[in-house]
Amino acid sequence: MHAIEKILAQASGKPSVTAGEIVTAEVDVGEVNDLYLQVVKSFYELGGTSVAHPERTTFVFDHYSPAPTIKAADNHKQMREFCAKMGIKALFDIGKGVCHQVLIEHGYVAPGSLVVETDSHTTTLGALGAFGTGVGATDMALILRNGSLWFRVPEVMRIIFDGDLKPGVMAKDLILHVIGVLKQDAAIYKCVEFSGSTVSALSVEERLVLCNMSVEMGAKCAYIQPDQKTWEYLARYGVTRAVREVSTDPDYRYSEEHRFDASAIEPSAALPGSVDNLALVKDQRGTHIDQIFIGTCTGGRLNDLRTAADILKGKKVAEGTRLVIIPASEVIFKEALAYGYVQTLTESGAVFSTPGCGPCLGAHEGIIASGEVCLTTSSRNFPGRMGSTDGRIYVVSPATAAASAISGTITDPRSLSNN
Amino acid sequence: MNTIHGCIYTFGNNIDTDQIYPGRYLELTEHAEIGQHAMEGADPTFHTRFAKGGVIVAGTNFGCGSSREHAVITLKNAGVAAVVAKSFARIFYRNCINLALPAIMIPELDEYRLADGDDIDINLFKGIIKSKGVSHNFPPLPGNILELIEKGGVFALYKS
Ligand code: SF4
Description:
By secondary structure, chain A is of the alpha/beta class. Chain A has 15 helices and 18 strands. In chain B, helix 4 (about 70-80) packs across helix 5. The chains are: A alpha/beta, B alpha/beta. Chains A and B meet through helix 2, helix 3 and helix 5 of A and helix 4, helix 5 and helix 7 of B.
């Protein structure tokens, strides 16, 4: 069996499972974010009176935080009341950060755990050897009521990266490349495992980016085998033990394998409209940018802010271009303050906003106007994702985003380091 | 629920949840209100031109993107009777099952030649799609899903 299958088997009390099988598994941690008052409504409609496991249930206010409208404020209020009534203590109120990062930093994710969130990017957690998947409101209401949910055991597709990354290339470039080659529907219903010498060499923060964006290929969950680095990262947040033992049997057969030479991958971009519309940054140079956004569960971690600060130190954001930076969590924000990155970036002309999703889904804090061009380190560039449907969104790495801020046009980060 | 009769509305590949239901309306919680913004990101005129009982016919990966259940709630409340696509994104598909919106996956949909504006008849239980006098058989949905759809989704199931 694959490690992911072992997690599902153990969580559903079975000796073994196979791909395609439907199992009912106990959920270790359920998370509701602030887009989802519908969970509360559905919970009551399903006849719920008390939450099965209040101690395994979390709420994170990230998408509309702090509340930009009366309606959003009212949704928050009703969720706070629900938590109080149900004895749910893990309510992460405004400014704590994006749900996936918040759960990690507060010790809710360990290798082998089964975590379900009302958000598609829950695949992120696979980078820590957990089974993480997203569901809608009704499924989450069922978890709140019953503590369990049905799952189809996924096939596992393996993506192997070998070779050393070129300077200026980040995990974001790797995953944009993969999605561009394999396309948006390559992994529907599947688990995507990342391995190879490149992945072993990546920091855990960068591995999280790979797993985060595997949902842009349709993945149900993602997986990276935990190693020493994983344990060192988790120890920072007080996690020292696996919830279930995770290992893949040597005779496990992957449904597909794709190999990539990471040393040949260059700074990449997803062109406006779809995440699989791959281009090289160097071929897009010169395009004027109205707004640059560095942030989100994909590109707003400490490593991303450090990369941006290193590039922008002593430089200014070009006139006519806005640089919005939103750390993915409060923990990251504080670290960035301590290291001086916030100071450096603010002096270069960047504008900081509250940890959370920010303009990633077009809710607030940097929505783009009709005809504007935005460069973002987030994960999606569907039409209308960050505001006007006529806005044009390029998805890039934090290095490319920061390098482009200096000239206000799309810039290959390698062209700076040569100076 | 057994048979569906309506008009076809076609869309392309990778219709994501932002196109089905733009993020700017996510704070809405009243279903009737949510129903007024169906497909707005893909076609701002959809709400005015759509006739209740119509069927959306699309390409691959319909419903990709976010987990928002609003995407299914909006289609249901706009009166969409079914979605037929070459493939579906998994969270959207789960949400469809839970809320009893028939989601019919037909990889070889191109051969059916379903055209925008034409009439369509679907028999969910027998697995038959008919348009312009031509019938096609598709593998019917699994029994437990059909049962759930017939009962009216998870909510009705838990109430009964
Ligand atoms: S930061 Fe963006 S992608 Fe991540 S959870 Fe928030 S809205 Fe979704």
